Amino acid sequence: MKSLKTLFQDMIKFPSNLEELKSLTGTLLEFQKFHPLYVYILFCSAYLYKQTFAIPGSVFLNLLAGALYGTLKGTCLASLLTATGASMCYFLSLLTGSDFILNTWPEKMSHLRAQVDNNQERLPYFLLSLRLVPVSPNWFINVTSPILGIPIKTFAATAFLGLMPYNFMCVKAGSVLSELISVNDLLNFQMVCNLIIVAGVASLPGFLNKKLQKMS
């Protein structure tokens, strides 16, 4: 059995394909039998690190959550870590990244700022729709939100709720990890359609509220 130090080194590398993920999962499941708390701390630390520094590839950790903790517990854990890590990224961007972001993506920032300004009255619903159907990458929303003046409470709540359907689908697939052939199996047409439907439902109250205000 691998030592805790070796496991930590493996997690720092992060799996980049399905075969690496399956190999790591087998090792962690074996280690988890004797040291469940260590595996839990290791998993949470790796997830928060990835989210805080906006490192792509959280899909592999969502799959791992399903393999280690099952669908229900894995989804709750992944969603909580997503919101916490995104909030840490929010504060990191607020403290250190404003000038870099504004200078690196001026056009994207202008476009997103205009969207946020136009949806101030229904901001939570707008942010939920962005999370549910990620036209803009989640990491970009995380690093730009503090610059756009989005309140941290609204940001964290919409990150938690908005990414839960995606987390659920990945975690559920991770619970039967051995049956997956490719990560692309997750990103199929049915999944995209489901996310679009959920986004539409989430955006409906804000849309109706805006229409009612115009009529009054």
TrEMBL record:
Chief localisation class: membrane
Keywords, comma-separated and alphabetical: Membrane, Signal, Transmembrane, Transmembrane helix
Occurrences of domain VTT (ranges): 55-175
InterPro entries referenced in this protein's UniProt entry, alphabetically: TM41A/B, VTT_dom
Domain of life: Eukaryota
Segments traversing the membrane: 37-65, 77-102, 148-169, 189-208
Its membrane topology: Multi-pass membrane protein
PANTHER family: PTHR43220, TRANSMEMBRANE PROTEIN 41A (PTHR43220:SF21)
Protein name according to UniProt: VTT domain-containing protein
Organism for this UniProt entry: Daphnia pulex
